[in-house]
Amino acid sequence: xxxxxxxxxxxxxxxxxxxxxxxxxxxxxxxxxxxxxxxxxxxxxxxxxxxxxxxxxxxxxxxxxxxxxxxxxxxxxxxxxxxxxxxxxxxxxxxxxxxxxxxxxxxxxxxxxxxxxxxxxxxxxxxxxxxxxxxxxxxxxxxxxxxxxxxxxxxxxxxxxxxxxxxxxxxxxxxxxxxxxxxxxxxxxxxxxxxxxxxxxxxxxxxxxxxx
Length: 212
Description:
Blueprint: E1 3-8, H1 28-44, E2 49-55, H2 59-68, E3 71-73, H3 81-95, E4 100-104, H4 113-123, E5 128-132, E6 139-144, H5 158-164, E7 168-169, H6 176-179, H7 185-194, H8 198-204
Parallel strand pairs: 1-2, 1-4, 2-3, 5-7
Antiparallel strand pairs: 4-6, 5-6
C-alpha cells in the first residue's frame, strides 16, 4: 500500500516554544524549519510513501519544503492542529479519492525511511492505527486506510484519545526514529543520539543541549 502523508506545521515564529531552555527566540524558528525539512526528506525517501502534503501558512517553510518535493496545502480552516490535518486529508482525497493517508508530526528530525516503512506496513492491517511518541503519552503518526476517515485527535494525551476513538495502537519495537518527536531540550538530546538529518545537525550545532 502506498501512503500520502499529511504533515502539519504551524507558523515558524510560534513554533517550539518549549525549547526556550535550549534555543533563544531568534533560533527556534530555524530549528522548527530544520526539523520539518529532515522529516519531509526522510518521508519522501520512504518506499511506502507516494507523496507528502504539508499543511502550513508559513511562506518560508512552504518554499523550503516544496523545494524538497512536498505539496503545500494552505491551512484554510486556521483552527488548530486537528482541523489542519482533517483539511489536509480532505484535500488529498479530493485529488485522489480513496487514498491511504497518514498524519505525521513535523518534528521527527531523526526519522529513518526504513523505520517509517515498517510502521506504515503495520498500519495497513487496520482501518485506523496510530503510533505513540517516545514519552508514551502523545502520538507521532495516525493512519487511515482507503475509504476510512482520519479523525485526528492530536494534542495532550493523544495516545489515550486515539485509542478511545477506536484506532489500533501499533506496538512495534525498533522504530524509535518515528517515535522521537522534539518538544524540549531533552527530546532534542535524544534525537541527536539517534542521529538527526543534515538540516537539524546544522541548526543545532553549538546549542546548549541539556544533559549533553
